[in-house]
Structures are given as structure tokens and as C-alpha cells.
Amino acid sequence: MNGFVEECRQEWKRLGVPDPIANEMAFDLSADIEEAEAEGGSAEDVLGNSLFDPRRFAAAWASARGVTSAPPALMTVAPVARGHHAFFRPSIVVALAVFGLLAALAAVALAVGGRGAASVARGIVSVPGSVRLRGPVSVARPFRNFVFGPSLSAHGAAPFVALGFGLLIVGIIFLGLVILYWAPWPGRDPKRRLW
Amino acid sequence: MTNEDGRRSQLLRGVLDLCLLAVIGEGPAYGYEMTKRLRARGMSIVGEGSIYPLLGRLERDGLVATRREASNGGPPRKYYSLTSDGTRSLRTGVEEWKMARDAVDRALDLLETEVTP
Fold it and tell me: Do A57 and B52 touch (CB under 8 A)?
């Protein structure tokens, strides 16, 4: 049974419970268990189902007493209680951020590749007037000039343009969502980032 | 866990704080002593989970006060007793429970009348 109390102690330490309070809780718990065992009972008579999950029990007790200074482990948080907000669990937000960054990087890579491909195409067909121009690409002119340069309309660059621009937009949207998620709002408790 | 077990568990969870206040109201007690008092009344609620987190909440809410005191031959224990807020909360809770119980009884009596020839 010392093992149970020891696991509780470790969880309290992780949660930042002050030592005197942790010692007090451990002492009371040990005393109750010893009394139950001395009367012919078992620790389960004292702890019930909690006996099988000491960390959850320790976290619940410390939280109920209001003596924790660190959030409970992610695995012990009950996201079910948050209902539809479970979508915004930290792991998902991190995944969104990573995806957004990858999409933005891919867009830049494709832009550079597109420009290179167009330049190569223009170099191969070096006779003036022999480069076959495609119709107008649905990209705003400032973006086209900034990102893809004047060689945008060269043959072979259009697929890169479309894919790169699409990825750029997706990346910006995802990164925007992540920033929105982490940004402090007036009246919003920073400790409760889950909407 | 069967549906019946689940319902029983939920019913108990809803009144566990009230039951704890009631047994503390009988006289100051430490954790395991409360468990024994509840069991003596046929409530093996500990099987549903420990009472310690609930005691912690009652203490934080100011419904119980604590003091450390030597027990009978054993180590000093943390004794819980009702505060005036706790006494008021117990009284209010008992009234609410009786109203809810009567309403449920009436509903179940009605059901029995309908299904029994």
C-alpha cells in the first residue's frame, strides 16, 4: 500500500502541491488505510475504485482542495466534459500549426520551383516571340509579381502557380487559426484556453 | 457496469456531499470514520470512489472545518466538523432532497398505476 501513497506523492509533487500539504494528505491516507487493514478490511474499503488509479485520485483530491499550482496531466484532464470544445485539444492545435507551416513552406518551394521552371523554359526556347503564352492566370497581379516574378505566364509554370498559391492560402488560414487560438482576449481566462 | 449500477452510481453521486454533511453533523469524524458511518447505514458509497476529494471540496467551500486531534490509541487524525454554512447547506439540501424524492415517488406511483391492472 505504500506504493499507492508513494504514487500519490509523486503526482502531488508534479502538480506543485506544497510539501506540508502533501505530507498531511499522505499521512491521513496512510492512517486510514492502516486502520482499515487492522480491522480486517482492505485499502479498497477506504479508496474504492480509486485504488486502481492513484494518479487520478491524487490529482482529484489536490484539485478539490485547491492546492495545485500546475495543470493536471493531459491524460487526466476530462475533455469529454468540454463537449464540442474537444476539437481544440492542444495536440490538434499543434498539428494544425505544423500543417500550416508545412503548407506555407511548400508554397514557397513551389514558387521558387515555378519560377525556375519558367526560366528554364524561357531559356530553352530562346528565339524571341517563340515562347507560347498561356491565357491569364487567376492570380492577383501584386502576388504574381511578388511571388512568381515576370516569368509567371511561361509554359509549365501555371500548375506550380495554382498549387503554390493554394497551399499558401491554406497555410495562412491554419496559422491564423492557431494564432487566434493562443491570442489573449479581453475577459478570457488565460489558464482556460479551450473554448 | 449494468444500467442499474450506472443509475445507482449517478444517484449516489448527486447526494454524496449531502450524506457526508449528515454524518459529519452527527459529530466530528475523520475520513475512514465517515466511511464506516455511511456503511453502517447501508451506503457503501466508497465503492463508487473515494470520499477524500469531496471532503476537500467541502473544506474549500467552507462547509466543514478541520482540526488535528489524537484518535483512540492511534496517530493524530484530521477531524472534520460542520461550520455554520455547512449546517445551513445541510438543512437546505435535505429539503431539496425530500422535494425531489417526493416528486420522483409520485411519478413512479403513477407509472405503477398505469402498468398494474
Answer: yes
Closest chain B CA to residue A54: B50
B104 phi/psi in degrees, rounded to 5: -65, -40
Whether B47 and chain A come into contact, CB under 8 Å, resolves to yes
**From the first residue on, what is the mean pLDDT of each consecutive set of 10 residues in chain A (195 residues)?**
88 95 94 92 87 92 88 42 46 73 77 59 47 49 50 62 79 78 54 43
pLDDT digits (tens, 9 = 90+) for B44-102: 765 556 899 999 999 999 999 999 988 777 778 999 999 999 999 999 999 999 999 99
- Chain B residue numbers touching A31 (CB-CB < 8 A): 30, 32, 74-75, 77
To the nearest whole Å, the CA of B18 is away from the closest chain A CA by 16
C-alpha B69/C-alpha B75 separation (Å) is 9
Cell of A160: 506550380
- Tell me which chain B residues have a C-beta less than 8 angstroms from the C-beta of A49: 47-49
* Burial of A59 per CB tally in 10 Å (0-12, 13-18, 19+): buried
- Sign of the alpha-carbon dihedral angle for A100, A101, A104, A107: negative
Query: What is the amino acid identity at position A149?
Result: G
A96-99 own/partner pairs: CB under 8 Å, 24+ apart: A96/A174, A96/A177, A96/A178, A97/A174, A97/A175, A97/A178, A99/A171, A99/A174
pLDDT score of A106: 78
B117: Cβ–Cβ under 8 A, 6 or more apart, which residues? none
Question: Which residues fall within 8 angstroms of residue A191, CB to CB, at 6 or more apart?
Answer: A71
Please name the member of A35, A45, A61 whose beta carbon is closest to the beta carbon of B46. A45
